[in-house]
Design brief:
One of its GO terms (cellular component) is cytosol. This is Peroxiredoxin. It holds the Pfam family 1-cysPrx_C. Keywords: Cytoplasm, Disulfide bond, Oxidoreductase, Peroxidase, Redox-active center. GO terms for molecular function: thioredoxin peroxidase activity. The protein is an alpha+beta fold and 208 residues long. The chain has two domains: 148 residues, Glutaredoxin (3-Layer(aba) Sandwich), CATH 3.40.30.10; 46 residues, no CATH class. It is built from five helices and eleven strands, in the order E-E-E-H-H-E-H-E-H-E-E-E-E-H-E-E. It has a seven-stranded mixed sheet with strand order 2-1-5-4-3-8-9. A two-stranded antiparallel sheet has the order 6-7. A two-stranded antiparallel ribbon has the order 10-11. Strand 6 and strand 7 form a beta hairpin.
Length: 208
Amino acid sequence: MSVLVGKPAPSFRAKAVKGETIIENFSLDQFVGKKYVVFFFYPKDFTFVCPTELIRFQEELGEFEKRNVAVIGCSTDSEMSHWAWLQTPRKNGGIQGVTYPLVADINKTISEDYDVLAGDYVADEDGNVVVEGELVAYRGLFLIDMQGIVRHQVVNDMPLGRSIRECLRVVDALQHFEAHGEVCPMDWEKGDDAMIPDHAGVTGYFSK
């Protein structure tokens, strides 16, 4: 798997859905210099674990917005599938009420660029290209800073839902480091003491 941390987030243009609106040329480039981005992949619309994550992101959207973070979802479904899911009431398995954009990666190119695409293209005995497995995205999540650089990534297998709390914690840690130059030790939470590294960058001491 590719490690994108420290590298520019792969750029793309694709259709996306926000509420009832289909956006023709959606790109993360619009946020460079303006917002942080949490860009997350999920396997499929109309499934089981996925709506728990998407709805939880919506419930915590205000916390992300307070931190100047845009939340963007993506799967290999079409924009019409996204649209239908967004209009379906939650009691019927939908995610009605989700207001952040969902990107349609129907050509699988975005998932490939972020290296979260499950399944493989292989050649059969006749030399024909076939697919092994299912070409859908793992549960990848990428925190992108205001310069468009990936600063954090995590990828879960499909049965394993993510922690929104941990996502917010990492956002807080990144923003604390950017604001104060202090590094954040294990399990650091906003308001905890951080550390000031020494000149060699090998050891450090707590700031308080």
